[in-house]
TrEMBL record:
Highest taxon of source: Eukaryota
Keyword set, alphabetical order: Metal-binding, Transferase, Ubl conjugation pathway, Zinc, Zinc-finger
One GO molecular-function entry: ubiquitin conjugating enzyme binding
Domain SIAH-type: 174-237
Entry annotated with the keyword Transmembrane: no
Protein name in UniProt: E3 ubiquitin-protein ligase
Catalytic activity: S-ubiquitinyl-[E2 ubiquitin-conjugating enzyme]-L-cysteine + [acceptor protein]-L-lysine = [E2 ubiquitin-conjugating enzyme]-L-cysteine + N(6)-ubiquitinyl-[acceptor protein]-L-lysine
GO BP annotations, alphabetical order: proteasome-mediated ubiquitin-dependent protein catabolic process; protein ubiquitination
Organism: Cryptotermes secundus
Free-text note regarding domains: The RING-type zinc finger domain is essential for ubiquitin ligase activity. The SBD domain (substrate-binding domain) mediates the interaction with substrate proteins. It is related to the TRAF family.
EC id: 2.3.2.27
PROSITE patterns, per the entry: ZF_RING_2, ZF_SIAH
Pathway membership, UniProt: Protein modification; protein ubiquitination
InterPro entries: 7-in-absentia-prot_TRAF-dom (IPR018121), SINA-like_animal (IPR004162), Sina-like_RING (IPR049548), TRAF-like (IPR008974), Znf_RING (IPR001841), Znf_RING/FYVE/PHD (IPR013083), Znf_SIAH (IPR013010)
């Protein structure tokens, strides 16, 4: 007996299955036709939900082990696929799976977390990978930044696929990443979406010496901001200026081909000062040694005046973070930027340059 014989050929089985009323009416019609045609009707009901839940997942996990799937990946898969349960039940299950409890259990958990983070390390740049994570033909992963730079996988030399490792991407969103400045003392961990925000304000963020690119010095020191004062006072005292309010500078026999740079202590903070002439343009910049979104803002003022004080130029700007490249600040115009022909008018007969500056907190 088919649907055409009972007048139900206008709907397919999928539509019928999704419409309970229609399905119930169809079953009743079949039962009525059973008596009319005196035929046997067999009824079979399948509970798909119950059938799916009855799958023996441990058997599937054992098969994965036989195929050589690493235990740490298998553990992560089981954790992700397990239905939500109470924290106590999950803890007991994990202790059972790992075969340990107490301090040994937590040590094992830390080991698993470290192993997982190693899986997220890009084999090229050694940074943690974030979405999208690309794969090679052999299944090795690589971050999206390094992928365009390479023609083949650095691990196995197989070609890359235009395929993303969605499973690893999803797990990476759940992972807790240690701060990149952990080696300097930061013990905090964050999710992927918050760690970048933390990096900009981390008190253990590393800084280069302000004089790392200063002519004649090129200091290689790298450390945290709190240790910078001690380093400057010990290694660069001859390039250090303490400013309480207004500082008058007299530069004898000024040479425009030289880039002048100093470290400034002012307002209980550290600043970097640099002035130079590029393509007949005089640039004067003061940068704050601190993060881009520092809680405090500082303003510096630069003043040129003739000997008789009949003519003067005074300009003020906000001190940008040292994390910004000076060339970028030059291009933006967010600094003192004067035609050098104008500055020449303020040089005295000995070719000395005299100017004043101060730094204040806004």
């Amino acid at each position: 007996m088919d649907r055409g014989e009972i007048g139900w050929d206008g709907m397919d089985w999928i539509d019928l299955a999704q419409d309970r009323d229609q399905w119930r009416a169809l079953v009743n019609t079949i039962l009525e036709k059973k008596w009319e045609y005196n035929e046997t009707v067999l009824r079979l009901f399948i509970d798909f939900k119950q059938a799916y839940d009855s799958v023996k997942r441990e058997v599937l996990y054992n098969i994965l082990i036989e195929f050589g799937i690493p235990m740490k990946q298998l553990f992560l898969t089981k954790t992700e696929r397990t239905p939500p349960r109470s924290s106590k039940d999950n803890l007991q299950d994990l202790q059972y799976e790992l075969g340990c409890s107490g301090r040994s259990f937590w040590n094992r958990m830390n080991t698993l977390s470290e192993d997982f983070l190693k899986e997220l390390e890009c084999p090229v740049c050694m940074e943690y990978m974030a979405s999208p994570i690309m794969m090679c033909k052999s299944g090795h992963n690589i971050c999206n930044s390094c992928r365009p730079k390479l023609k083949e996988c650095p691990t196995c030399r197989q070609p890359f696929l235009n395929v993303r490792n969605k499973a690893l991407e999803n797990l990476s969103l759940l992972a807790k990443y240690p701060c990149p400045y952990k080696r300097y003392g930061c013990q905090l961990v964050f999710t992927q979406e918050r760690i970048t925000e933390h990096q900009t304000v981390c008190p253990y963020r590393s800084y280069n010496c302000p004089l790392s690119e200063a002519e004649g010095i090129m200091c290689k020191w790298i450390g945290i901001r709190e240790d910078m004062r001690e380093h400057i006072e010990a290694q660069h005292r001859n390039r250090l200026t303490q400013v309480d309010f207004l500082k008058e500078v007299l530069l004898r026999k000024y040479r425009p081909e030289i880039k002048y740079s100093r470290v400034i202590f002012a307002c209980d903070e550290v600043f970097y000062q640099q002035f130079e002439v590029i393509d007949n343009v005089f640039y004067f910049v003061i940068q704050h040694i601190g993060p881009e979104n520092y809680d405090l803002k500082f303003q510096y003022n630069f003043t040129l005046a003739s000997q008789e004080h009949e003519e003067s130029i005074s300009i003020s700007f906000v001190a940008r973070s040292c994390k910004l490249d000076i060339a970028t600040i030059h291009r933006s115009g967010q600094c003192v930027k004067l035609c050098f022909d104008t500055v020449k008018n303020f040089l005295n007969e000995n070719n000395s340059l005299k100017f004043e500056f101060y730094i204040r907190q806004l």
